[in-house]
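In response to the reviewer comment on reproducibility (Comment 2.3), we provide here a single inverse folding case reported in full, input and output, so that an independent group could reproduce the run without further information from us. The structure tokens appear first.
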């Protein structure tokens, strides 16, 4: 480095969405924070044009540009890095991250604009590399964990040992002030106790933890920053029961509006911890549970250890608690699982009533055990990232395509929770089970060409109305009433999606106003609106009258209704925090 000249280092990445934030880059910045370097951080998204991002980086005039690389951004990152080298030929290009750590030599041979690749954990390696590049310290050949160019060719240095003391990494968000619109990623541990062959965590032995007191202090700081959601990236957050119990307890005592998302193994939860979690405030915690499959032979083949009955029991208890959003995952395309087996897995998980059931597709990640055995399993997968399965010895491409269409319909309808009552009844009327219902619905979806169009939320209600009328034995009146209820639980609107109809009553609007003019009604049903005029309250709530027979189809309405009709008051201020549904009160008008 020239004396008196401060050379800029820019840490950057392409996030998949604007609301995401890069933990990896913040770790690098924090680990080098005691250095007098000009270390900048810029985040973009994969939706930004290469031209725009190149221009923004060019304005920074960096001497070094370091990219964090993943399956979702590597293709565009390589285009961007090439462009930067074209317009700033003296700029050094560094790539790091899981997507470049396992074929580093090949990447550098194919892309001569890459100067360095940082393999594996990057904090110590990146710091030493910058000490060499910016301060002239040491020799490149002695920096463990890098791959670099020399006059004799590409050299892959010795791998670096994992950091033994994670507390040596400072709090990664010290320099961030405005994170209100972002999902903040955080980790309390690195590694995973399991060795699942499809996961990169299987190649790193053991689990290392940040000190529990440090984690508590970090989380307090994030809460104080006003962060809306903290998403833990720990592969199995609850692998140490005492550690996870202490963090859960601390967050429950601390309170606040921040939501915390954890990946857990439900079968590792003991009764004491579940009892504790049952007292958590609604919406404080969100759990993601990787079931992947319920086929025991497939689980053994992918080296996944699961006590399945305990997982089911614990997941069901969490669902019944109605205070923790629970997200269960399945993976299509695992070795040994054909369509019949996947159907059983789907129905097993569906029966647990998860808040979200993620139907994912196997990705044969670089460095994973399953990719090394791809030929043995007959895998055909996309050459470009994300290396997603197209077929194998148990599912052909037609099977995978059918599941893709089903996933689209399932995301629109089940995972949106905009159709809960209608779907519960429709699936119950499908004697073949939930998988068969959604498979048939997806076939209808394709036959009508709906897979080739974009749909508004209102369109989706209309589509489900016509499907249920044509392909189920649910009475048309009940299809109408269930969809009307689902629509109004999700949004306040005086106009219903066609062809959903209303129950007509004379002087209906005046009856609603008369109800709101009575102070006793407001005090008992809508106490937070005391002091508001009836006109003001009317604009914030909604009255709707239903055919009384709906009570036999909706658990919360059973035994209610009068003279064949019932009126429900929808309050949109007090929505439930798990599924964002309006509060409902039975009223007489």
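Designed residues, in position order:
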């Amino acid at each position: 480095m020239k004396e008196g000249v401060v050379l800029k280092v820019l840490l950057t990445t392409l996030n998949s969405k604007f609301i995401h934030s890069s933990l990896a880059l913040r770790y690098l910045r924090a680990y080098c924070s005691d250095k007098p370097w000009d270390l900048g951080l810029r985040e973009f998204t994969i939706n930004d044009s290469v031209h725009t991002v190149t221009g923004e980086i060019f304005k920074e005039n960096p001497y070094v540009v370091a990219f964090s690389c993943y399956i979702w951004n590597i293709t565009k990152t390589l285009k961007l890095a090439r462009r930067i080298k074209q317009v700033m030929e003296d700029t050094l290009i560094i790539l790091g991250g899981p997507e470049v750590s396992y074929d580093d030599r090949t990447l550098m041979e194919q892309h001569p604009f890459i100067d360095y690749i940082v393999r594996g954990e990057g904090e110590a390696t990146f710091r030493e590399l910058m000490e060499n590049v910016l301060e002239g310290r040491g020799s490149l050949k002695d920096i463990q964990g890098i791959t670099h160019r020399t006059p004799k060719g590409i050299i892959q240095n010795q791998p670096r040992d994992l950091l033994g003391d994670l507390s040596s990494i400072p709090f990664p968000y010290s320099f961030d002030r405005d994170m209100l619109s972002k999902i903040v990623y955080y980790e309390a541990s690195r590694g995973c106790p399991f060795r699942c062959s499809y996961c990169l965590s299987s190649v790193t032995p053991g689990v290392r933890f940040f000190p529990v007191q440090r984690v508590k202090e970090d989380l307090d700081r994030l809460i104080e920053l006003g962060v809306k959601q903290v998403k833990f990236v720990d592969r199995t957050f609850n692998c140490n029961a005492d550690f996870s119990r202490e963090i859960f307890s601390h967050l429950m005592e601390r309170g606040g509006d921040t939501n915390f998302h954890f990946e857990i193994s439900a079968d590792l939860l003991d009764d004491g911890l579940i009892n504790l979690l049952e007292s958590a405030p609604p919406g404080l915690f969100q759990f993601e549970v990787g079931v992947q499959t319920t086929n025991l032979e497939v689980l053994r083949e992918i080296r996944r250890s699961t006590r399945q009955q305990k997982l089911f029991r614990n997941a069901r208890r969490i669902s019944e608690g109605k205070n923790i959003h629970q997200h269960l995952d399945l993976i299509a395309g695992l070795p040994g699982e054909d369509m019949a087996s996947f159907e059983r897995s789907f129905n097993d998980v569906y029966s647990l009533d998860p808040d979200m059931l993620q139907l994912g597709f196997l990705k044969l990640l670089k460095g994973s055990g399953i990719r090394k055995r791809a030929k043995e399993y007959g895998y055909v997968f996309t050459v470009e990232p994300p290396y997603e399965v197209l077929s194998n010895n148990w599912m052909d491409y037609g099977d995978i395509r059918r599941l893709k269409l089903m996933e689209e319909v399932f995301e629109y309808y089940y995972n949106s929770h905009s159709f809960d009552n209608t779907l519960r009844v429709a699936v119950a009327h499908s004697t073949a089970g939930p998988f068969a219902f959604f498979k048939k619905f997806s076939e209808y979806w394709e036959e009508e060409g709906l897979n080739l169009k974009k749909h508004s939320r209102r369109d989706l209600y209309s589509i489900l109305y016509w499907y249920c009328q044509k392909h189920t034995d649910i009475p048309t009146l009940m299809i109408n009433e269930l969809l009307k209820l689902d629509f109004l639980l999700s949004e306040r609107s005086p106009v219903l999606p066609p062809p959903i109809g209303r129950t007509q009553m004379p002087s209906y609007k005046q009856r609603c106003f008369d109800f709101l003019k009575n102070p006793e009604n407001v005090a008992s049903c809508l106490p937070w609106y005391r002091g508001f005029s009836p006109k003001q309250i009317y604009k914030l709530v909604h009255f709707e009258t239903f055919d009384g027979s709906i009570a036999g189809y909706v658990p919360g309405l059973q035994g209610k209704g009068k003279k064949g009709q019932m009126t429900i008051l929808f309050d949109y201020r007090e929505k439930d925090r798990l599924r964002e549904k309006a509060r409902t009160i039975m009223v007489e008008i």
